């Protein structure tokens, strides 16, 4: 182990704070502002990725030959409080008979797989069923009748193909009926919006009857997110269904963003950024999401994961993905487990 790595670990151990449940000082508690600390308790990672059957091959970094494992041994320490330890048995018991649905892009899929693994590792004595039907996947835990579902829908608004080409209808949601079945909804939309070149999946925007070939990306995103928010307010009963929105998950393709201008990607990164501040740029979409949610009649709970992911330049599959370099998704076990630990803590408070 290098001198630099040893010093890094000593800093983390010296700054370590205790884990456990939510502290009493709720006014100072912000789950999304904090720092990553070395977990000397031995409770990280929360499961063995090599044993979980739900992980996409490209996200199983240890199985794909990643030689380091430091990234598995950090936990998120919020300012003013601590997160509750994830308890799979308790989660299943509290959600008996419920349907929990993730709706979004591959980052939503990342979180869905993580939750499946967290529950599988704690409840492997329970019988379960995994089903895939097109873009819809379900893990069903029989004893508790709990469904953990993922529905692939990267834009949330309608994407159709007609004689004009591929049209992204920014003011239309016609396929939301399945969402209404859920007791807990976790939405996400951003990753597909920033795809360019051959990965771009639309030719035109449409608002009303008018087509736009060019529109500022964040203007289009704001219209679409406003359409989603209005759909939620009009169709989801807050007394029955809890709604969350997974915030913007950071990417690490430019080392200059974290003070390493000589680096072009996340490849070779084995440690988080120290402290609670990220030196790089903010995402414009962060404020768009916050603005839209603030205007909802029944605001969704924003899982504001941007900072905690910005600090984890070491958490991506990088070259251990079985294909192209990946500095946008997350290894499992890994960072998305913390998203679900925060979700669990919020639900416990409720």
From TrEMBL:
The keyword NAD does not apply. Residues 83-345 form the Trichome birefringence-like C-terminal domain. InterPro entries: TBL, TBL_C, TBL_N. Keywords: Membrane, Signal, Signal-anchor, Transmembrane, Transmembrane helix. One of its GO terms (cellular component) is membrane. It is found in: Membrane. One of its GO terms (molecular function) is O-acetyltransferase activity. Residues 28-82 form the Trichome birefringence-like N-terminal domain. It comes from the Eukaryota. It is a single-pass membrane protein. Residues 1-24 form the signal peptide. Pfam families: PC-Esterase, PMR5N. Its main location: membrane. Belongs to the PC-esterase family. TBL subfamily. This is Trichome birefringence-like N-terminal domain-containing protein. The lineage of its organism: Eukaryota, Viridiplantae, Streptophyta, Embryophyta, Tracheophyta.
